[in-house]
Amino acid sequence: MASSPKILAYPHRHLLGIEGLSVGEISCILDKSDQYVAQNRRADKKVDLLHGRTIINLFFEDSTRTRTSFELAGKRLSADVINMSVGTSSVNKGETLIDTASTLNAMHPEVLVVRAGLSGAVQLLAEKVNCAVINAGDGSHEHPTQALLDALTIKRRRGTLQGLKIAICGDILHSRVARSNIYLLVTMGAQVRLVAPMTLIPSGAKNLGVKIFHNMKEGLNGCDIVMMLRLQNERMHGNFFPSIREYFHFFGLDYEKLSVAKPDALIMHPGPANRGVEIDSEVADDYSRSVIREQVEMGVAVRMACLDILSRNLQRELMEAKA
């Protein structure tokens, strides 16, 4: 089956991370996603593109936004969607993960969407199955579709990512969202700043093409985009800051800290937001500047695009193998 140039611009079977993707490959997904934004705003949102195809959402970690978004994306493409939630105790051993892959492989799905608490678990699954695999977040490693939806939100508001000053603020150390966004934004030509306490900046971060700040006003000065991150308490082992109150005082986003950014700077957050911890409620609800709701909308479009592209690529692979 012939594929359009936009599909061929992303030639991979899987989407396991943003690291290593080219400008063209990222742009391919964003362009296709933009088409699905328009589709999702129509009265009839469904298309028959994946009719008869099976998508399995396999979540080893709890999730509401991401799982629901992938489920909605699959159903709007008319796929058969199966949601599987697996207790984290089931993946304590590598053998269990491989057994899971073998079981799912026997169901012959076209796409497997995986969220796992262990970094690298999604990569391992992808090596053991015959279908396409999308990483819906693995440990502190990557969350590629979140970075893509963030990029789409910015691009639709600003027209480009090239040259924008973007501050990513908060728990950088434990955030797979931050990691994927850094890879994507740097690749697309944005000027990325990381703003966090020293204890929440990962070692080697300065080698990722970013500037690092430990003061919010210095980091936000002149920024076009302010992207806040939640504190990932579930991944913290030890004391990374004295108290929540002190953290908000120095690193929580409020209007005083935001005042040094550009007057029309956009406020972003991947959710769920901890109000009064990393962001003030008044700022989060300022819909003249906050695009948090738009991020949710863009998430469905991006995930539809990824399911579309990877399903086509898999179909092409299978047909070429038979030829």
Structure description:
There is one protein chain. The protein has 323 residues and is an alpha/beta fold. Helix content is 41%, strand content 14%. The chain has a five-stranded parallel beta sheet. Strands 2-1-3-4 form a four-stranded parallel beta sheet. β5, α7 and β6 form a beta-alpha-beta unit. α2 packs across α6 (144-158) and α6 crosses α7. Residues 1-7 have low confidence and may be disordered.
Estimate the mean pLDDT confidence: 91
Could you tell me how far the N terminus lies from the C terminus, measured between alpha carbons in angstroms?
11 Å
The tally of beta strands, per DSSP, is 9
**Structure class:** alpha/beta
Helix content range: 40-55%
What is the subunit arrangement here? Answer: single chain
| Biggest sheet details | 5 strands, parallel
The whole-angstrom Rg is 20 Å
Contiguous helical run count: 12
Shape: globular
Sequence stretches where pLDDT stays below 50 over 5 or more residues = 1-7
**SSE topology string:** HHEHEHEHEHEHEEHEHHEHH
Which range does the strand content fall in? 5-15%
- Strand sequence of the main sheet, in spatial order? 7-6-5-8-9
Task: Give a brief description.
The protein is α/β, with parallel strands linked by helices and 323 residues long.
What keyword list fits this structure?
323 residues, alpha/beta, 5-stranded parallel sheet, 4-stranded parallel sheet, 9 strands, 41% helix, globular, disordered N terminus
